Amino acid sequence: MINFVILIGNLGNDPEVHYSQEGNPIANFNLAFHTSVKKSDEPNWIKAVCFNRLAEIAEKYLHKGARVAVAGVLDQNRWISNEGVQKSNFQILVNTLEFIKTDGRGFEEGQSSNTGVPF
Question: What is the CATH number of domain 5-101?
Answer without folding.
Answer: 2.40.50.140
